[in-house]
Specification:
CATH class of chain B: Mainly Alpha
Distance between the termini of chain A: 62 Å
Strand order of the largest sheet of chain A: 6-7-11-10-9
Largest sheet of chain B: none
Largest sheet of chain A: 5 strands, antiparallel
Number of helices of chain B: 2
Number of domains of chain A: 3
Structural class of chain A: alpha+beta
Strand content of chain A: 5-15%
CATH topology of chain B: F1FO ATP Synthase
CATH architecture of chain B: Up-down Bundle
Order of helices and strands of chain B: HH
Radius of gyration of chain B: 16 Å
Shape of chain A: globular
Strand content of chain B: under 5%
Largest interface: A-B, 18 and 15 residues
Number of helices of chain A: 12
Radius of gyration of chain A: 29 Å
Helix content of chain A: 55-70%
Distance between the termini of chain B: 9 Å
Oligomer: heterodimer
Structural class of chain B: mainly alpha
Number of strands of chain B: 0
Order of helices and strands of chain A: HHHHEEEEEEEEEEEEHHHHHHHH
Shape of chain B: elongated
Chain lengths: 464, 68
């Protein structure tokens, strides 16, 4: 077991360092390419520098300085190489941007070097037609940026965007380095805006419409994305997995009535009984049987997706760390709670019994807001915890690239890859715990909200 | 400027939540030490209370994100 772990760590760190060195090669190419610019610059600067410094030592020192400056300029050029429209298409390695890219939903499912195209279902606002095509049409490159445009849509870093303005329909080869991002002030906030360079024209690309409250720059844009994205595919997979698992378990119970549980049945029985005895019964009360299926569904759905996102080298889809998914889960919890709310529940919100009238004027708005804040926190808690876990993992792996200076420092690369591999394994162990805790917390809180809504109020009456 | 103020607010919110969850954890540990047979009930309530405090901190963090 110990040997297995050690060899795993070794392979992990070596493979990461290997990719770091690959990056180095790319960078080297870029450096040579931009040598021209740097050289011209030096020739221009040379006379100006030589005139004031006549002393030998000074020239030496200056030359040294100049070479340094040249290397720097070369590096700079390699990373910030603008295309024909002056859009920067390659940026320096940015761990934060990489982490945000990792947690975002994608229109391509990529596992290691393999890219699996997914169906795109796109609705352009203002036209009745719904586009339906495979994201393979974009012919994505290594950075998941499409080298083709299709019917006015482009793929940038795995996400479909729509070109605004005069752009022809059909399959159009836009080539590499055509898409880039620029920071722009939108509604007083700095936002990244994607631009396409086509035949020397700079065209703005819209993001898909989102209703995330502007958290990630959302809003209604020129199209809506109904695609089967990476997250949707993961959810469909999880639905089938869960259906298969639980139908198998149910069949086992029918066949082996009165006998001890076996196999997968034995694995899940303690968890199901735990939700029943520790969550449903104490928090909901005597109506627990009605809500147990709902609680079990929500628990296993969240747990399954949390764990699915944790499996390394399998795409790491961040489903429960997506605001839209947690929002839908929270809305379902909200509806189940409030549709089952009895007279006492509503009375306690709008006209709390047993308190003076002037307190009620303060209490009623607060209680009423609480009805909406409860599902809001459910949504945010799951989202924030799972997203933070995914980001931490990416940041730890990114440390290798930061300390190896994009592959130029081999010692830094190897040294950090071992430390970072260990840290990542440690974080994964914690995330495994978080996956269970967050699924449990979501279920227990939903149960307590439902419990408060269906509670018969004779307990309190007895105390009065 | 707005971004740094938001970051500061985020940090303050997390300090509050940290103190709160820390107190819950310490009291829960004491309670478990005193009554080991009630460990199940204490754990469930500990997680529930911690989740409620975490909710307040999360709202502050999201507000900070929106302001930044």
């Amino acid at each position: 077991m110990k040997n297995l772990l050690t060899s795993f760590l070794l392979i992990f760190s070596l493979s990461i360092t290997a990719s770091a060195q690959q990056h180095d090669h790319e960078q080297h190419d870029g450096h040579q390419h931009s040598d021209h610019d740097g050289h011209d610059h030096i020739q221009e600067a040379d006379p100006a520098l030589k005139v004031p410094n006549a002393g030998g030592a000074h020239i030496d020192g200056d030359n040294h300085h100049q070479t340094d400056g040249h290397t720097h300029a070369g590096d700079h050029g390699a990373h910030h190489e603008p295309n024909a429209c002056g859009i920067v298409t390659h940026h320096e390695f940015d761990p934060g941007a990489l982490a945000f890219h990792h947690i975002s939903d994608q229109n391509v499912y990529n596992v290691g070097p393999w890219k699996f195209p997914l169906p795109c279902i796109l609705k352009t606002h203002g036209s009745k037609k719904i586009e339906f095509f495979s994201s393979g049409k974009f012919n994505a490159d290594y950075h998941m940026t499409g080298t083709n445009a299709y019917n006015g849509y482009v793929l940038y870093e795995g996400i479909v965007r729509r070109v605004v303005g005069d752009f022809p329909d059909g399959l159009i080869d836009i080539g590499h380095n055509a898409l880039g991002v620029e920071q722009e002030e939108v509604d007083g906030k700095a936002r990244d805006v994607v631009y396409l360079c086509h035949n020397g024209n700079k065209l703005r690309c819209d993001n898909k419409s989102t209703l995330d409250g502007g958290l990630f720059g959302g809003g209604i844009t020129s199209f809506t994305d109904f695609s089967i994205t990476k997250n949707v595919l993961s959810m469909i997979f999880m639905v089938f997995l869960m259906s298969w698992l639980f139908l198998t378990i149910a069949k086992r119970y029918r066949e082996r009535e009165g006998k001890a549980p076996s196999g997968v049945q034995g694995l899940f029985e303690p968890i199901i009984v735990f939700i029943q005895d520790e969550v449903a019964k104490p928090f909901i009360g005597h109506k627990w049987e009605k809500f147990l299926p709902f609680l079990l569904t929500i628990f296993f759905f969240i747990l399954g997706l949390n764990l699915f996102g944790q499996i390394p080298f399998l795409g790491g889809s961040n489903v429960t760390g997506s605001l839209s998914v947690t929002m839908v889960l929270a809305i379902i919890a909200f509806l189940v709670t409030n549709l089952n709310g009895n007279k006492h529940y509503w009375e306690h919100i709008f006209w709390m019994p047993g308190v003076p009238a002037w307190v009620k004027t303060i209490l009623t708005p607060v209680e009423f807001l609480g009805v909406f804040i409860k599902p809001l926190t459910l949504m945010l808690r799951l989202f924030a915890n799972i997203t933070a876990g995914h980001m931490v993992m990416v940041i730890f792996v990114s440390l290798i690239f930061v300390f190896s200076k994009n592959g130029t420092s081999v010692l830094g690369g190897y040294g950090t890859s071992i430390a970072s591999g260990l840290l990542t394994v440690f974080m994964m162990a914690i995330e495994l715990l978080v996956a269970f805790i967050q699924a449990f917390v979501f279920t227990i809180l939903t149960a307590s909200y439902i419990g408060a809504a269906v509670e018969e109020h004779h307990h309190a009456e007895e105390h009065h | 400027m707005g971004g740094s103020v938001a970051a500061l607010g985020m940090g303050l919110a997390v300090i509050g939540a940290g103190i709160g969850i820390g107190m819950i954890g310490s009291r829960a540990m004491e309670a478990i030490a005193r009554q080991p047979e009630a460990v199940g009930d204490i754990r469930a309530n500990m997680i529930l209370t911690a989740a409620l405090i975490e909710g307040a901190a999360l709202i502050a963090i999201v507000m900070a994100f929106l302001v930044a």
